[in-house]
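Sample entry (468 residues):
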Amino acid sequence: EFRRVLFRSKQTQPSLSRGLWSAGLIAAALLAAHGAWAGDQSYHLRAVSHIGAPAPGGGLFANDFEPTRLNNRGQVAFTAEPDPIGGEAVFLATSDGTQQMMRYGQPAPGTGLSFATFELGSLGLNEAGEVALAFTLGSPPDFAPDFGPPIIGAVYRWSPETQALTPVVVPNVTPVPGGGLFRGVYFNSSLNNRGDLAFTGFVDTPSGPNYGAFVQDRSGTIRSIVMPGDPAPSGATFTFGGNPAVINDRGDVIFEGHTTADPAADINDVFVKRHGASSAELIPRPAGVVQEANLFINNDGEVAFGGSVAAYPNQLGIGSVYYRRGGNTTVVATTGGAAPQGGHFNNIPGASIGEQLSFNNRGEIAFSAATDTGDEAIYLYSSDRHALRRVAGTGTTVIPGWTILSLEQTGVQVYPPPAGTFSGIPTCGVALNDWGQIAFAASVTDGQTVRGMLLLATPNDPDAGHER
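Predicted structure, serialized as tokens:
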């Protein structure tokens, strides 16, 4: 999984319904709010699945879990590798169980090709349970993907009503707004509750294929958010933009881009294109940051992102988590800064690695981090309280007899794990909804074996202390 992370440089008003899954299905110990804000709720944890469990569609879950989206019904969209190991599949976990939407090697609708081995970055998921995904394409017998550029892949919508995939972008078939054809797609998809799907697509430029950000509405119409050659703020020109492109329910899109004003090829900026606006606005790059990751914009127009002090893939997890509201950017957590329960942060994957940070409509940010005390944990920041707390991590009881060993995924092995098993970079995936539920993966142990597990943390009182 760490090898894959290196390679992949990679909200409406809540309705309780039955989405807050009963953790009584699996007994769990409560995590005390150490160093938390006064009177805050504790969490209970539910095991969604584990390495070695049957995977829908056949085989067993064999390698890792990558949860990237969690809606207010408690549905988790995630990527995993069923056996035999060699390719990925996309799943949706609900209160009724887990179902598969697609798997590598299957025919890719509308393309004449098959799904190759890799899903491309974060999935999209809305309150209706619709899913957006980008996946590499290939041909039998090895289904080897072509990472270009352009990356030969397609974007799809999955409908819970039809239980089927519908192509959004097919390379060399789907028209680009303004002329030409999409040559492929890049990482990450985003889906709002109106059914608008934001994605990043490769287009032709005079210097070869490069990528821009686009949105397809529910009717199927695709519009451009930014393309190479478009004017950028302060008289500059975009050379590329859109990885990722994330959309809120108002239709605002946040994206990372590079312009002719940037001082080096590996320095990028964050931009927001407000719905109906004719141009994008620049979010000032924090001091010392050269690249951003995990961009989010909520329905209030607030922004969260990670910022790295080194260009990917150098010094992974070295940087900060940022929150922006009303023109002001706040540092939420930074490497070298004090952690809530002692020690100092020495790695925050969300600063530079995709899928390791999440943001909700209440202005809360969830992310994973490691400290110089050897702890690896999930943290939650409240913008209302301007406070940071540890939710769960090393030593937390998951289910009776099983505790979290790390937020890295190792499969099943003897305990204690061999020296060098863990990297110190807790790439567990993080997904947060408006009720404060957090989906993430971890290695857990019973003192004899170590098992990878997909977890859902639910606050005991999801509405406690919130003013929004």
